[in-house]
């Protein structure tokens, strides 16, 4: 399973890279707004800096902020021109699906975001989206089992051999990561804190402390 980091912060991207846990980056307008970028030039430079931190087969999802079809495709084309590693992230709306269709026909990779149902995921695949991003945590927040949606989408995609890759988003904790890996989807995107939490287990800490204590009690004396 590919491990993407859900952030626009360069330090966090570098940290994930140093842990060997980076296959790509996803951003969204809220994440970009945290990075003290005050105009289009700075935003473009920032996307390029993210892309330059990645390897050839890795990519960064950059989201359009327009909502009408023409503006979406123009913004999408501009984002795609910034760097070959950009994947254009488009929200799941009627205009968004049309924009995905247009950009996919032009061989521009897209990520259909804000997906909360199997029906929406079906439309994204029909339109030719490269990724579909179902939001697991936000569904859990409204008392729907987000992981159930991941299973449903996988089932639908397998039935029809859709090529669209499932990139589970809104990942909140390590159990989401483990369950997605068990379901067998292409990728997840998570904040750095979830990546870090995967390292932790109290029995590892207790075991390590005991090993060192035992060793020092004999070897140092
Ligand atoms: C998806 O790509 C989004 O950027 C993201 O995963 C949303 O996560 P959140 O629900 O934690 O904001």
Describe the structure.
The chain is of the alpha/beta class. It is built from eleven helices and eight strands. It has helices at residues 10-18, 29-33, 40-52, 69-82, 94-105, 118-127, 136-141, 146-160, 174-183, 192-197, 202-219, and strands at 2-6, 24-26, 59-63, 86-91, 110-115, 131-134, 165-168, 187-190. An eight-stranded parallel β-barrel has the order 1-2-3-4-5-6-7-8, surrounded by seven helices. It starts with a strand and ends with a helix. Erythose-4-phosphate is lined by residues 6, 26, 28, 113, 133, 135, 137-138, 169-170, 189.
Nutshell version of this structure?
By secondary structure, this protein is α/β, with parallel strands linked by helices.
Spell out the blueprint of helices and strands.
Layout: E1 2-6, H1 10-18, E2 24-26, H2 29-33, H3 40-52, E3 59-63, H4 69-82, E4 86-91, H5 94-105, E5 110-115, H6 118-127, E6 131-134, H7 136-141, H8 146-160, E7 165-168, H9 174-183, E8 187-190, H10 192-197, H11 202-219
Parallel strand pairs: 1-2, 1-8, 2-3, 3-4, 4-5, 5-6, 6-7, 7-8
Helix pairs in contact: 4-5, 5-6, 6-8, 8-9
Bound molecules: erythose-4-phosphate (E4P).
Erythose-4-phosphate binds next to helix 7.
Question: Strand arrangement, largest sheet?
Answer: 1-2-3-4-5-6-7-8
Strand percentage, roughly?
A: 15-25%
Number of helices: 11
List segments where confidence is low: pLDDT < 50 over at least 5 consecutive residues.
none
Element pattern in H and E: EHEHHEHEHEHEHHEHEHH
Helix content: 40-55%
Mean pLDDT: 97
Distance between the termini: 47 Å
Radius of gyration: 20 Å
Bound ligands, named by name, code or SMILES: erythose-4-phosphate
Number of E-state strands: 8
Q: Which sheet architecture does the biggest sheet show?
A: 8 strands, parallel, barrel
Overall structural class, as computed from helix and strand content, comes to alpha/beta
Shape: globular
